[in-house]
Amino acid sequence: MRASRAPQRWSLTPGASAPALETEQTALREAAQSRLAEVSHRLRVVGATTWLAIAVAFGTATGNPGYLHQSTWVAGYLAASVALAFATRRYEPLRKHAAKLIAGLDVPFVTAAQYAILAERAGDNHPTTVAAALYVVLILTSVTALDPRSIALVTGAAALGQALLNARSSIAFADGVSNVAIILVAGSVAIAVARFCTDLLASVASSRSAADKLARYFSPEVARAIAAEGSRLQDRREVTVLFVDVRGFTTLAEASEASEAVAILNEYFEELVECVFAHGGTLDKYLGDGLLAYFGAPRPSASHADDALKCAAAMLDTVDTVNQRRRARGERTLRIGIGIHSGPAVIGDIGARRRREFTVVGDTVNVASRVESLTKEFDVSLACTESTRALAREPMAWRDLGVTRVRGRERDVRLWTLDRDA
Q: Where are the domains positioned within the chain?
């Protein structure tokens, strides 16, 4: 493989893909806000209906003109609530700004409705106490916005409304202050709950993002192991490393449009990656027109050499199938070269604090890459080292390629290939 390739890596840590993670968090938060806003609008209709029924019944039973006057305001509040509930189904902004609507609609209506009673009976303290309770309910409802600033806006509006009602009534100063204090405490609690929910959504988004990455780069079994073991997956393991190079792609890409070249490479990669997953391997990264996979980690496996060899054989068969399909469409075909080597390697989260990748490093990786390069000299599609052949437990049709020099190694290395016809 050419040294100029830029590895395309991935990371389990949020910092490695902050834009994607931020997008995931934003999407999840907006979905939650939208759903909660719909619930709050429905609750507004139910609450307004209940309030109207109580106001009419209580005013009729007591003959208090203040409650009958209040019912007029509550009827208007109910009409606005119903209209708003229908409007939110069509207009997304109304769902996004649910808490601001509470500050601009619900709080003023509650204040006006309670003020209507005090206009008839200025010395009555009961409406101010009821208002405080209603304000607290509205503040807690504003948690659905998951936005501390919007909750603070509702809390401020409620405190102002309570102060106006206190001034109109003959409530004791200490009791009036207590009502305002209760509203402010409710606002603080609501903000804390909103922040907790936001952090929880961020955690869910991070987990979902990590799970998506695991599903893309690991077989299901390996993905479950990483999700379960997490940071304990940093170790030195005996693994088998497999390098694949898609040959002839550079020439083909130079004669093709960029989108066409990417589509061609993706067609082969789609099949090759499935082979890795089907044999319990881990896709480490793409390297231009090649890829690196390894077996025996992060889950240890006694059959990692056999798994890698079976995967390589499956890749060669798969490429033949893809080429047949492309020839039938009158399109150009490509070949691959595979290099395999077994030995100790370090796996785990490796890199700087701001960007870490779960990857495999060590001399075993370097040797596998150089063995792949030697397949061109021996005119074979697959080559593996003696260490891999010695670890293989299942009988295979071996063909000795002889002893050769591998760059970076002091001793010569014996290479083998598989006789596919046999």
A: 14-213, 225-418
Residue 213 backbone phi and psi in degrees, to 5? -65, -40
Proportion of the chain above pLDDT 90, given as a percent? 31
For residue 21, give the 3-state DSSP assignment. Answer: helix
Pairing of strands 356-361, 382-385: unpaired
Q: Which residues pair with 182 in a beta bridge?
A: none
The more confidently predicted of residues 11 and 374 is: 374
Distance, CA of 227 to CA of 320 (rounded, Å): 35
Q: What is the pLDDT of residues 334-393, one digit of tens each?
A: 999 999 999 999 887 677 766 667 788 889 999 999 999 999 999 999 999 999 999 999
Question: What are the angstrom distances between the C-alpha of 338 and each of 212, 237, 419?
Answer: 28, 22, 14
Amino acid at the residue 338: I
Mention every residue, 6+ apart, whose C-beta is less than 8 A from residue 188.
Answer: none
Tokens of 301: 């496996």
Residue 372: φ, ψ to 5°: -60, -40
The span from the CA of 297 to the CA of 359, in Å, is 10
Residues 6+ apart with CB under 8 A from 73: 109, 112, 113, 116
Q: Kindly report the number of other CB atoms within 10 A of residue 403's CB atom.
A: 11
pLDDT tens profile 174-229: 888 898 999 999 999 989 988 888 787 677 666 666 666 666 556 565 566 666 65
From the DSSP assignment, how many helices (H) and strands (E) are in the chain?
A: 14, 9
**Is 288:272 a contact under the CB 8 Å cutoff?**
no
Query: What is the three-class DSSP state of 31?
Result: helix
Give me the residue label for tokens 């150089």: 370
Over residues 16-35, the pLDDT tens digits come to: 444 554 565 566 566 656 66
Between CA 228 and CA 217 the distance in angstroms is 16
Contacts of 422 (CB under 8 A, 6+ apart): 397
pLDDT at 242: 97
The domain 225-418 having CATH identifier 3.30.70.1230: the answer here is yes
Quickly count: other Cβ atoms within 10 Å of residue 221's Cβ.
10
User: Residue 300, preceding bond cis, omega within 30 degrees?
Assistant: no
Name 261's Cβ contacts closer than 8 Å, sequence gap at least 6.
249, 252, 253
At residue 97, the 3 state secondary structure works out as coil
